[in-house]
């Protein structure tokens, strides 16, 4: 399952997997406790594949940040908790994404990224590669 089906719902803890759409919104299942909720179209919902992190030059898609964390942690959970002190979180994120924009990426954002990454790893969602198929391999003559 890719990040296209993983959601963050404002006001609700953790992440949710999109189950189905309804006339008035959609049904999602929590990745924390597997409980299903109905979310209206008026709710603020973010799809993880659409989120990006500000750097000094560009915006880096969240999937790339997750890949960098995965490489640093050798596929396991993060070595720090999202509840650690501000300075530890900033140092960790600087190791993962050295050119992140410290003025626009807040500690609360870093906490979410770390927490979301650990939730995805716990649920065995570990393929953060791009869904796009590269055509380089198919152009061989």
- Can you tell me the number of structural domains? 2
Kindly name the structural category.
alpha+beta
CATH architecture of the largest domain: Orthogonal Bundle
Order of strands across the main sheet? 4-3-2-1-5
> Which sheet architecture does the biggest sheet show?
5 strands, antiparallel
Number of strands: 7
Low-confidence stretches: 133-141
**Overall 3D geometry?**
globular
Number of helices: 3
Distance linking N and C termini: 33 Å
Helicity level, as a percent range?
25-40%
Domain DUF5606: 3-48
Pfam families: DUF5606 (PF18347), DUF6852 (PF21186)
InterPro entries: BVU_3817-like_C_sf, BVU_3817_N_sf, DUF5606, DUF6852
Domain DUF6852: 51-120
Describe the protein's architecture and organization.
This protein is α+β, with helices and mostly antiparallel strands and 141 residues long. The chain folds into two domains: 6-48; 51-123, Arc Repressor Mutant, subunit A (Orthogonal Bundle). The protein contains three helices and seven strands, in the order βββββββααα. The chain has helices at residues 62-72, 86-96, 107-122; strands spanning 6-9, 16-21, 25-30, 36-40, 45-47, 52-54, 59-61. Strands 4-3-2-1-5 form a five-stranded antiparallel sheet, with no helix packed on it. Mean pLDDT is 91; it is low at 133-141.
């Amino acid at each position: 399952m890719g990040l296209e089906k993983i959601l963050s719902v404002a006001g609700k803890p953790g992440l949710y997997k999109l189950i189905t759409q309804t006339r008035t919104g959609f049904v999602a299942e929590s990745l924390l406790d597997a409980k299903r909720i109905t979310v209206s179209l008026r709710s603020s919902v973010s799809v993880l594949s659409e989120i990006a992190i500000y750097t000094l030059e560009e915006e880096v898609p969240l999937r790339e940040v997750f890949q960098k964390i995965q490489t640093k942690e050798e596929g396991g959970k993060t070595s720090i908790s999202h509840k650690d002190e501000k300075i530890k979180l900033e140092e960790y994120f600087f190791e993962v994404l050295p050119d992140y924009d410290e003025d626009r990426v807040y500690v609360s954002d870093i906490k979410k990224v770390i927490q979301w990454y650990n939730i995805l790893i716990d649920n065995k969602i570990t393929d953060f590669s791009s869904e796009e198929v590269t055509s380089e391999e198919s152009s061989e003559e």
